[in-house]
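Good morning C.,

I know you're traveling, so I'll keep this short. The sequence:
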Amino acid sequence: SYHEAMENQQQKINNVLHSLFDFRYGVIPYTSTRCPDITTAIDVLTTGRYQRFPKIIEESFAPKIVTDKEVKESLRKINAYIELRMLTEEVIPPAMKKYRVADGRITFYVDKEFEVILTPNVAEENVYWVILDLKILVQSENDKLGDDVDLSLHENQIEHIKNFAQGFLNPPPFQQQPNETSKHLPLLKLYDYLHTLCLDAQLEVLYQQAFRLHKTRWSENLVVEMDHTHTILRICYWNWAKQTVQTAQMQHMQQSRRSNIPSGAVNKPPINHDVIEISIAEEMPSKSLIHYTRSKLSKSNWLNDASRVKSGVINDGRGLNYPRKFLRARWSGLTGVLANKWTILDWEF
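The tokens, ready to paste straight into the viewer:
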């Protein structure tokens, strides 16, 4: 019939298509000869490597080997850049004047506070400082009452401090105001942060030492108090002894009255004041910042606002009157002009 004839014809067409597919992918690939890459074969056989590999791909897998001479030359250029930047661009706090430039790095050493190593990120268009290493040098002297107060920080704590301090060194975001001429002062901001951190650590050392002393036989004669901001330490001492003296004085006065002895004839034992206060204070400078230009010397009376420091001029950091924060103490036992007068503490404690 007609339908059977059509099905037979369609079956033959399908068989032809299957035969052509098998012939194309099953027979022809084995009968044709590939064209050899003569150029690549010559390169590999003569030099041992493929010479025409794209450089951008090659460098990503096998970076260029830098010779010792190139390393020394690069470090010399970085050292020169650092020294020039320190002389012409940076405003340096007086406490960070002791620095050393070597091996493409600059090391700042502040005695009994911190040591920080920086390097410029010359790979970026807007070059900024990068913290390589940081050491906190605050430590206590042996109190001879036991083990020394340990303020050593863990690696995670040091990394957290470094990451937070790096934020002061990073360049500020793009300013919308085109007339803004304030200068970014990374070293001043870094010093303010690390110096404040060290002052907190120094006050913590004093607190720990006084608290240890309170745990000894001084427990009745010593009271240690720290405010909620951890910036004021108050030490009251001779409490029990003072109460004993006051009690003895009252008894002596009562006996004197019974004996009809004039009160003026009674020698009253002196009562010493017994409070020492130590706090972290901040004092705004009264000096002016000196600006040097080609035409004249000028100064700024607005040191309270560091953004007044202009870009494009050489700034003298001595006018900053740093440090602005320090430890101070006063003793209520002083009299005369020294009564209730704050005294700046040295770093020996």
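Safe travels,
E.
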